[in-house]
Specification:
With 275 residues, the chain is of the alpha/beta class. It has 5 helices and 14 strands.
Length: 275
């Protein structure tokens, strides 16, 4: 069951250009790999949704890419400071797979170390924009790593059960290769539990809230083929008042691959992972 607690910062560590924020666990359950937590961003109106990266004894650790004022505020925390944390939330990965292969692109590596603990021995392939960003691969020892312009999809064994996380162009390319892949999607988010409708996407002609019916969706053939960046079709026509707030001040799943969109084009045959 999700809980909301005020937790202290145990440590803040640099991992290449990313930041690993370690919090005291307290009474919070780490949940299933792929689920997320809402973290209070000091000085910001809304919390930030982050997937759990590591769950060592007594701690919860989150990998953060400082892409805006909220994530920057989290990266600037210091040991001993306290923030409110709410979770775990959403649906994570199914673990009942025969030949798991973990696939990550850029900050999409975030949930994979915790997932790897639940699937011992599972191979992993990771794609990054630069060698500096690829330093994050140290969180997943033994992973095969590629750097742009090599596409992470070139490393995928299509005979495996793929569990992926990364920017949308990468996920769409992965889905073209592996239609049954489990994919962790992203969307603007404000509440984390389905009340604000800020993360609604169109799936199979129906509007679904990623925070409660995702962020991991399986298989992709159930997802509307025209899913667009932002996965932009939100319930704008909904009468739910907080939609405007969620749209104007979005909290993205920063550690589920959410970040500024790349301008380069991607084909189903390959993807240079955003870092």
């Amino acid at each position: 069951m999700p809980r909301r607690e005020r937790r202290s910062v145990a440590a803040v560590e640099a991992v290449g250009p990313y930041t690993l924020l370690r919090l005291a666990r307290g009474g919070l359950d780490p949940g299933v790999p792929g689920q997320f937590f809402m973290l209070e961003a000091p000085g910001r109106l809304l919390p930030r949704a982050l997937s759990l990266c590591l769950a060592p004894p007594g701690e919860l650790a989150f990998l953060i890419d400082a892409v805006g004022p909220g994530t920057q505020a989290l990266c600037e925390l210091t040991a001993g400071e306290e923030i409110h944390v709410f979770g775990p939330l959403g649906n994570g990965y199914r673990l009942d797979v025969d030949r798991p292969l973990l696939v990550g692109g850029g900050i999409g590596i975030a949930p994979l170390p915790y997932l790897a603990e639940a699937l011992p021995g599972a191979p992993a392939v990771l794609g990054f924009r630069t060698a500096a960003h690829a330093e994050a691969a140290a969180l997943l020892p033994g992973a095969e790593v590629c750097i742009d312009p090599t596409f992470v999809t070139e490393l995928i064994d299509t005979g495996c059960d793929v569990l992926a996380c990364g920017p949308e162009p990468m996920l769409r390319a992965v889905a073209a290769l592996c239609p049954d892949a489990q994919l962790a999607w992203e969307a603007p988010m404000a509440c984390g539990y389905g009340a604000c409708y800020g993360c609604v996407v169109e799936i199979g002609g129906e509007l679904k809230r990623l925070c409660v019916e995702g962020p991991v969706l399986v298989p992709l053939r159930q997802v509307h083929a025209g899913l667009s960046p932002a996965i932009t079709r939100r319930a704008a026509a909904s009468s739910v008042a907080p939609v405007a707030l969620a749209t104007s001040a979005p909290c993205v799943l920063a550690s589920l691959g959410a970040r500024d969109r790349e301008t380069r084009q991607h084909s189903p045959k390959g993807h240079g992972a955003a870092a």
